[in-house]
Input
Amino acid sequence: MIRDIVRDTFFLQMPSSSACQEDLPALYDLIDTFRENRNRCVGMAANMIGIRRNIIIFLDGKKEVIMLNPKLLSGKDKYEIEEGCLSLTGKRKTERFEEIMVEYEDLNFQKHRKKYNGYTAQIIQHELDHCRGILI
Output
């Protein structure tokens, strides 16, 4: 089901809680909503559609990647950039790492670790901030 994008900053600033098996139906709403908005976004966190769970979806090139309970383990080479967000108006300055290591669970709740860099790393950090209630 395609959901509306949440713009309530009070809601968006509340940290999300861990995702579990019972949250998988909400994940499919996130996927549907992300696909509906792909012409104007490259990533989305569950709280952006009203679900306060640690679930993100993003593009890695042309491939959709879903992460449950993602955590930033490390980052290096910090830089400043301006970003936009579907939930907010305009662009804002923020700091990101050029390279990150992320731990996450897949749809079967199996843990993985993966290194990302460049634009994909930037997208992931933006969505991880959403999960923690941090707005740009």
